[in-house]
Amino acid sequence: MPWAYLLECADRTYYAGSTVDLDARIWQHNHDDDLGAAYTRSRRPVVLVWSGGWFDRIDDAYAFEKQIQGWNRRKRQALINNEWHQLPALSRRSAVQRREAEADLPHPPAR
User: Fold this and answer.
1) I need a labelling partner for 22 at 20 to 30 A (CA). Which of 55, 61, 80, 90 fits?
2) Which interval of the chain is the signal sequence (predicted)?
3) Domain limits of the chain?
């Protein structure tokens, strides 16, 4: 079964991944110097904090992994806490904050 997952590393950062064998993959992250990801290898131990196994294909789990990798920490924490209703607001808030920041930028004088 394909899985997307989030690990919390020893340095409190998050690592997003996808796999077809969740238990084996977490073991690799914590113990295997050849198959574990380079990122987690230097941040052991890692702990599984979220997983989703509703994907039909590994490609779909991988696509969701890539989506999570683009999220900020607050949005990842909402996912971990099963606060699905917060996810759109956290995305919109970023866009609104960007627009507000751009509006505050000094504009060149009109000619």
Assistant:
1) 90
2) none
3) 1-70, 72-104
